[in-house]
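One record is kept unedited as follows:
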Amino acid sequence: MKTRAEFYDSRRWDSLRASVLRRDKYRDMVKHRYGKNVPAELVHHIFPLDEFPEYMWQAWNLISVSRATHNQLHDRNTDELTELGKDLLRRTARKNCIEIPEKYREETKKPSKWERRR
């Protein structure tokens, strides 16, 4: 794979980015899911580019978002996905019949002390 900078500076990315924004009608699709109409300015890789280069050009792996939503999908200190980003990844994987990577599977909830007593 090219470096991140080379990838994001490529004509191919510019073209795909523009087509995703058009597909999503320049709306933040995360906010749209909750009935809010917020303009989108960025395109987000649902399966992170660095971890899943095989999905970097897949339109189903891309979603239009606002800068604020993009910052809610990534922890900007670690660049890891937040719970919101992981949830989006899990929903996308299920929708596209892709196995959810171990790292992103939901943690099993520990039983409460009341559940353990039964």
